[in-house]
């Protein structure tokens, strides 16, 4: 059970045993609509003496569904979707690379290394209002720079994609830029669409126990 999330990267948790622990929270955003005290949570436990916080916060239950609040999991989910042919089925699976340097000081999440390269940036969506997903949930200069880098790849003759990994099934509508939170990102997003950057939404859900990832219908 979540007691509170604080200092952005820490969360106090009460385990089923009654023990109180502090877990690492890998989400750099505000976790709007998915961090209410009293929520059920799922953690990962790492038996590593070098870790200051052995537990990591991965999922929060909002009373309706599990929400994946670890944005790093989104990349692994997208990798699995590519491998299993749910995303980019027409591209050769053997030519995908991960975490490739590009555009000066950036790294692309996925690169399909062919004559015409395909650059794929993954964003985890956890913020929802009335069934609509929004990104980001906090000002993100980094995400805005990613959009500009994707535009540069378009200008160089390649293809660029944003994949919004929607880690909560109660988002049933579009994913939109959160203009009220980060107007600079929203502006860069609209410019990216005009420049030819393509947007793909990957809606997923977790099973009732929060153990497995399923594709949302």
The chain-level structural class is alpha+beta
Question: How many DSSP E strands?
Answer: 15
Count, helices? 3
Helix proportion: 10-25%
| Mean pLDDT across residues | 95
Distance from first to last alpha carbon: 29 Å
Gross morphology: globular
Nearest-angstrom radius of gyration?
18 Å
- Beta content comes to 35-45%
The description of the largest β-sheet is: 6 strands, mixed
Strand order of the largest sheet: 7-8-9-12-14-15
Which H/E pattern describes the elements?
A: EEEEEEHEEEEEHEEHEE
Note poorly predicted spans: none
Walk me through what this model shows:
By secondary structure, the chain is α+β, with helices and mostly antiparallel strands. It contains three helices and 15 strands. It has helices at residues 71-83, 141-155, 183-195; strands at 2-6, 10-14, 20-24, 40-45, 55-61, 66-68, 96-102, 106-112, 118-125, 127-129, 132-135, 159-166, 175-177, 198-206, 213-215. Strands 7-8-9-12-14-15 form a six-stranded mixed sheet. A three-stranded antiparallel sheet has the order 1-2-3, with no helix packed on it. The protein has a three-stranded antiparallel sheet with strand order 4-5-6. Helix 2 (141-155) packs parallel to helix 3 (183-195). The mean pLDDT is 95.
Short structural summary:
This protein is α+β, with helices and mostly antiparallel strands and 217 residues long. The chain is built from three helices and 15 strands.
């Amino acid at each position: 059970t979540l007691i509170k999330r604080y200092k952005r990267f820490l969360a106090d948790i009460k385990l089923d045993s009654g023990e109180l622990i502090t877990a690492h929270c890998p989400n750099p955003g505000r976790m709007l609509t998915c961090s209410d005290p009293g929520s059920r949570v799922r953690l990962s436990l790492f038996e590593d003496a070098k870790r200051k916080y052995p537990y990591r916060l991965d999922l929060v239950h909002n009373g309706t569904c599990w929400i994946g609040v670890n944005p790093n999991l989104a990349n692994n989910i997208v990798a699995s979707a590519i491998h299993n042919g749910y995303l980019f089925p027409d591209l050769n699976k053997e030519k995908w690379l991960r975490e490739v340097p590009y555009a000066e000081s950036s790294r692309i999440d996925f690169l399909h290394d062919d004559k015409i390269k395909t650059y794929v940036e993954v964003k985890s969506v956890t913020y929802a209002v009335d069934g609509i997903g929004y990104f980001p949930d906090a000002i993100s200069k980094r995400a805005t720079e990613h959009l500009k880098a994707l535009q540069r790849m378009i200008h160089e003759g390649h293809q660029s994609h944003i994949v919004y990994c929607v880690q909560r099934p109660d988002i049933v509508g579009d994913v939109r830029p959160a203009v009220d939170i980060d107007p600079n990102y929203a502006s860069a997003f609209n410019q990216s669409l005009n420049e030819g950057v393509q947007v793909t939404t990957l809606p997923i859900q977790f099973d009732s126990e929060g153990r497995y990832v399923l594709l949302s219908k």
